[in-house]
Amino acid sequence: MRRIRKLVRGALIFIFCLFVFFAFLSIQSSFAGNRHHRLQRGAAVPNQLILKMEKGRSAHGFLSDVNGVVVRESKGHNFTLIRLPGNVPVEKVMANLRRKGGVLFAEPNYLCGLPETSNQDQIQPDQDNPVYIAGISPGPYYNQQAAGGCGSDSANLVATGNNVVVAVIDNGIDFDHPLFADLADSVGYDFIDDDEDPSEETGDLLGHGTFVAGLVRLVAPDCELIPYRAFDENGLGDAYTISLAIYQAIDDSVDVMNMSFNTYTSSSSIETAVAAARQAGITLVASSGNDSCSTTSYPASYGGVISVGAIDSLDYPAGFSNYGDNLDVVAPGVLVYSALHTSYGYDWGYWSGTSFSAPQVSGNCALVLELRPSMPGDTMEVHIRETAETALIWGTVAPHDTLYGYGCDDALQSVICLCRGDVDGSGQVDSLDYDYMLDYLNNGGPEPAPIFELGDVDCSGVINNLDVVYLINYLNNNGPAPCCR
Fold first, then answer.
1. Which residues lie below 8 Å from residue 471, measured CB to CB, with a gap of 6+?
2. 37: exposed, middle or buried (C-beta count within 10 Å: 0-12, 13-18, 19+)?
3. Which CATH architecture has domain 116-416?
């Protein structure tokens, strides 16, 4: 039945999306900024280098040797951004520094971009501009594939991301949007302007961070969001600034880190920061990229990062989505509906990109962490893989697939897997649960709550006395635990 519902829903969404596309075609040009081409491999900020020293060592002792000036410095994490004179060859300076004692790495300050800077997608505003009513309006926001197809609407009956902190490293957020009315305008940090106001600014990628944050909140409506502005208004950032944001998120004790950005040049600075976040147990989620290729992109391909690609409303890979051996899961990414920056004159609209697939997975991770607060990021990656949906509209994914990874992110299964058998909603599986099930099956008692599937302990597709036997065997005889699907 679920597969049939998905098929019907997918067909309806596809028809609706066609209607939306042609309906807004006439106004797309007014919202189309000048998109940058994909950053060339190795592109970096001219005359800048990043130097990381061993603990207790300082970069200042080398500055006179290279005639360099400190631009920014993170003493707590012992890495420094240095600017060199225009006539000094950066590569030669780096080679000399790498031979110095105490230097962990010296590298250019590589450029990095939000994926949507490289493709010709357009923002499509919802001209109806519906009023925001939590849980109800806008209808396209709460009823889209990201909610129904991936099960987050049902999963929210069990978990909503309460007490889970999600960092959004992007180009800021619109604090004036009604969806984020609960956020104080001092939360987070702006690493571009180096101040405490991470609000988005007008440019080609205006609304990107707001759109991403809106999708985290769609899946995990009660999570705490912290925006870190590490990209400018045109969607461009650099390795040093991104690393600062990651370290700040670690210091702020976030639980999940959404990274809807990518580069094709591996940066030791970003990789080291990601490794520190992983060591801290943070769940890391990143978009795979929008260049329709299997070329390895970062940070999605770093160890411990959940790499997310995009699919359309019929469960086919999005034409722009990157793929390959490093892909973990996919999520809806074509004509996704979320919050737009209010300066557009429209609060809501549609956008496409892997940037908008990743936050749905970040939201799913927040749901899981509400139920299992101590689950480390590496375990979360395995959990998201194992609970991914493999029975798609067109057929079945055989993991690991280079186009789909381990399947489509499934928030409902991610949650049910952790609490199947807890049919009385007490928060734990115990003898009261099989008494509850016997009462339901034999005496017309209340059904499993809040989700009926929690009573299908053996995953047979029905709830019967075999589930009671299975549960008794698990609790009293050390039998197998309730299954995940």
1. 421, 429, 433, 434, 437, 457, 482
2. exposed
3. 3-Layer(aba) Sandwich (3.40)
- Of 121, 190, 199, 208, the active-site residue reads 208
Q: Is-catalytic flag, 208?
A: yes
Model's pTM, two decimal places?
A: 0.90
Q: 312 catalytic, yes or no?
A: no
pLDDT in tens, 393-431: 999 999 999 999 999 999 999 999 999 999 998 989 999
Q: Cβ(35)–Cβ(114) under 8 Å?
A: no
Q: pLDDT tens-digit profile of 155-187?
A: 999 999 999 999 999 999 999 999 999 998 779
Catalytic residue among 170, 204, 347, 409: 170
> What residue spans define the domains of the chain?
116-416, 420-477
Told to judge if 355 belongs to the known catalytic residues of this protein, a careful annotator would answer: yes
Question: Is the pLDDT assigned to residue 32 strictly greater than 50?
Answer: no
Q: Which fold has domain 420-477?
A: Type 1 dockerin domain (1.10.1330)
Q: Which of 152, 154, 355, 414 is catalytic?
A: 355
